[in-house]
Amino acid sequence: MENLKKKWNNGGNEKYGYVGPDGNWLIEPRFDDAEDFCEGFARVEIGWRWGFIKPDGSWLVEPRFDDVEDFEDGIALASVERRYGFINTDGEWLSEPKFDRVELLNDGLAGAILNDKILDSPWYLIRRDGSLLVDREFDSISDFVEGIIRVEVDYKYGYVGRDGTILAEPVFDDADNFKDGIARVKFNGKYGYLKADGTYFIEPKYDYLSNFSEGAAAVKRGDKFGFIGPDEVYLVEPRFDDLDDFHQGVARVKVGKKWGFIKPDGSWLVEPRFDDADSFHEGLARVKVGKKWGYITRDGAWLIEPRFKAACNFIYGHATVMVGQKWGFIKPDGSWLVEPKFKDGEYVKIGNRVGFLYSDGHLSWD
Question: Which residues make Cβ contacts (< 8 Å) with residue 60, sequence separation at least 6?
């Protein structure tokens, strides 16, 4: 099936069909719309109705649905008259179309709303056969991450397991998705970490607590910031006015009104002397002195003296910088890759790559 690719018969009957690796039609173009094959079948549309075909072009399920999604483990979401349910590969309903809205989740589950015409209609967690995973109503749900889903009730957050077990009741003011078996939560204005079994990894007691990065999490004690390890022992005592997470073994920190960089043990890599700074990327950090930006190496030496009105981090061996009101691109040695000539909102080409230039200088590559 991976050898079959959908193709629009442009200049012919303007229908979709499927071609093989040599570009020849294996399924003649006769569909108004079509998608690629998934689990051995492809969803296709004829006359505003969707169905599924086999690799030989014959019908698996004839087109009679308003909309369908791909099969997953032999089950597909389908709708009739704007109501959603689930079908099997015979086109039979496993779950009658009774939901106004369904959001497919991973792990073979879904979130569903029975009546979206009612303001603040609740979400239900359901299996692909339409049965309830847990007999509870939620204001919002996220997708499953590490087998756990975050749910919201009355502006409070909790967690539900893959089997429908309530791992933590919705009592948290804020909550992140799980990562590496723990999730950051906020309770009574304080931050901590929750384990997958619903017990605390770190009790909520910090005014600020970041996600762990390179074995360290930023915390706030009083009005100063520092870093702790997973055992809550201070790796760097709180003494900074602001900071960022460790990145490539370095963290940017602020003392007074100046920024510098520290090592994981808290010693200075570059003492604070910059009016603004960003993390190191490709061995260089963009820093600001007065109203101009430049770039330093990890020993604090200037590689490119501050001379730009604005500057972005290096990526793919070049950085976007502004001179006057125009953007250009420099190499790591400070020489011009492309001299400033671009305005915000333009498409630019660098080598064989084309990107859209945003007002902050960042590129979105096509």
Answer: 41, 51, 52, 53, 54, 89, 91
Q: Mean pLDDT of all residues in the chain?
A: 93
For 154-183, letters b (16+ CB in 10 Å) and e give eebbbbbbeeeeebbebebeebbebeeebb
- Buried b / exposed e over 8-37, threshold 16 CB at 10 Å, is ebeeeeebbbbbeeeeeebbebebeebbeb
Q: pLDDT digits over 172-209, tens only?
A: 999 999 999 999 999 999 999 999 999 999 999 999 99
* Residue-wise pLDDT tens digits, 216-252: 999 998 899 999 999 999 999 999 999 999 999 999 9
The CA dihedral of 113, 116, 120, 124, to the nearest 10 degrees, is 0
- Say whether 36 sits in a helix, a strand or coil: coil
In the β-sheet with 224-228, what is the strand arrangement from edge to edge? Answer: 217-221, 224-228, 234-240
* CA torsion angle 88 92 96 102 (round to 10): 30
Longest dimension (CA), the chain: 72
Which pair of structure tokens corresponds to residue 187?
A: 């309770």
pTM: 0.80
